């Protein structure tokens, strides 16, 4: 008894997270009729269960840590945060998990929102099954952009469902701090959520399978963050896997591979992400359901002339800002191709997501903050570059010492010795979150070392580490 | 009965502030024998009476303001700062006004320190009169570098001596907060010291002759800072001059040009700087005592082949970091000329202080912070560039909203429409102090707008204002 409506568009976007929104923004700006299909909240993971709520939880933690490092202010902030107030502020930043604002924005750009589950159903076609069971068939004259993102991956442990473990969603939207929280994982979600909930009143145990934290960054990032988490009261256990998890009378019981038993009120698994491509009809267009979608630098799926995959789903860089960058480029590329204009697909062209390869930035909002852009030393060496790593102890920078007593941090730049440009930069320390964009411009801009000498850091800021890095490069 | 010793050096540096230290560092690194002459503390104004103590005073003020904008933390920090603790920390950062550490550093690089008053006494010659009256004549085979900086200028008001007014020196080194403090001036020293002492317990009145504050920056910088100072309790009176100042029974009495009478415990004049060149023997080398020394881009005094003037004294940019930049370049140029190597004097070359013209950065450590680099819109227009100013309200950036409730701030980039590069950038708002270096690299690196699109700001940082500025440039 379901009716089917057929609607033709220039572009159909699957997924209304920040990535889908930005694709639509660009195709609409080019005058292309655009449908956006979303089965959950418009605004996506980032707005409700990732960037926004996590940073809302972390910001007061970081500001408190900063204040504690300053005599004259520190005594006032020795007590715990007012968790209820922090959580209420978090609710504000997630709009109480309502998407009216973002729906209004989609309307304002003239995109059509179709609520429901969208599935590809053949070339240039998406079938949407609405919440009421009504089906609509959307056809796309020019492009379908898959922007469905990722979901958390849970490990394959027997009985895990009954434990009702947290993923990043529960960890960012919980209404109160659990008394005891076990966090499994050593990446960004794990370290950020361990930082937040420990400060909000939980006793956190962090179980990390590998040797260290944040292992996609330079090794000192994870080392400094682990040290600080431990000082904040988190029990950090590296080299530890989970053998079993059960819930007994409400209590979570974790047994590790070494036989240790840990009791907790909740357990968060931050153990990776999988693409949300398992139920979007990829089989109807000869692609493997559940796979990451490989794309070229215009974000078009390999071998297709109409299918794009933008954001997490293409596995190039699982970061909101990088997905938005891709979205701007994909939207522009779709529009250029639709109008028959030239596609500027050369490196750093308007239609090439070159930064995905060379200049992906990331800030981890722990205390200390860990921020990086481009390649780590190991990545640069592996890629076959002739490189030199230049390190500097951030604590020796005047601006860092002034920033807070007992400042600990470190900086590294990875220099391409052939071209004398930077391939990567990492800053770890309090107050470096806004500093990394200087490195992003240096790396993406391929600004030569000889010119960086003329980019004078203001005294006394933490930015003066740039001068110290250049001096260390010159003198050693 | 004074003895005279004659000592020959390759280079003689007059003044051991950060600028003199950096010149010596570079000439010593080149193997040139180097004398440094200092009549006060090694480390100079910056270490004892400017950058270091002022930032030590301001950092807790800023951290407190940040904390107050965060529910969950704000309640704890409503009370005043512990001024005694803040002042003690300031004393630590000035090494209690002792220079042993910096003397040790000069020794470590193998420069000879001559304490005493140094005066030029003819070509390539400096005569030092020591504290004991002993005179030494230092000759310089290659160069004399004048790095004597500036001193505060007091207005020509009758009886001012008896008032014992504060200058930047007393304002940064005072041992306690005066109950009532009048600050005269509207520049960096005035706004920073008004911010610091108001937070440390003084009732501050700021008297500004002109219409606004920070008038070398974009107009919105002074407007936002004035607004915040007022909210912090400072009485900001623009368009107001001082007609007379007296001290009556210990109380400072200021009468303004409008006839208002203001009583205070201390008065700070932050009304400009004059070069410390009045008593350094400039007459012996045919230069005007008390004048600013004009130099070329290698920092060599116009018309001389051996006399350099580096830092504030040449009036190019009265900022410690810019003086240090000049010092590195001057030291390298002196060394190159001494060894007969080629001087790389073209724009952005190793021996040209090109950034002095195009990319001088500055951070004002008020709350909000005000930071800029390069040309303001007015300066760019005056210089004859065809430009466009692009503005953005920082409060609309997610990362700024997360940074603190009630965030107020603004950003501007000035685009050179011929070359599509940036001539200047200004950020005003909490947390922008480390962000400005991104702009410094963009301006000094002359990174084209088309490439800046590939420098992706991390979400959700304040740095995302970069994306908003680019979008505003594209769409308007």
UniProtKB/TrEMBL annotation, chains A, B:
Belongs to the class-I pyridine nucleotide-disulfide oxidoreductase family. Gene3D superfamilies: 3.30.390.30, FAD/NAD(P)-binding domain (3.50.50.60). Keywords: FAD, Flavoprotein, NAD. InterPro entries: Class-I_Pyr_Nuc-Dis_Oxidored (IPR050151), FAD/NAD-bd_sf (IPR036188), FAD/NAD-binding_dom (IPR023753), FAD/NAD-linked_Rdtase_dimer_sf (IPR016156), Pyr_nuc-diS_OxRdtase (IPR001100), Pyr_nucl-diS_OxRdtase_dimer (IPR004099). This is NAD(P)/FAD-dependent oxidoreductase. Residues 360-466 form the Pyridine nucleotide-disulphide oxidoreductase dimerisation domain. Its cofactor is FAD. Residues 9-321 form the FAD/NAD(P)-binding domain.
